[in-house]
Amino acid sequence: MILDPGGLVAWLVVGLIAGALASAVTGNRSGCLGSLILGLVGAFVGGFLFSILGLGGIFGVEAGFVGSIIVAFVGAVILIALGRLIFRL
Questions:
Q1: What percent of the chain stands above pLDDT 90?
Q2: How far is CA 30 from CA 18, 19, 26, 60, in A?
């Protein structure tokens, strides 16, 4: 298995941007590392949900960088909402 450093950097940038946007929109204060983790996990959640809804082709690999940020942002907002619902933050 070969690890593409450009792909890893892109994942980190997408995660950081999506997490920071989700934190700003929801008023969540998670810091830089928290935003990065939130965005990365949000990317998985968003990707899963978008594929279930049949929107994977619209916001999938074909959508590129911006589409990835949108999917990760939606997933991160959902994670924040679930966290607040479960833990009453």
A1: 17
A2: 13, 9, 11, 27
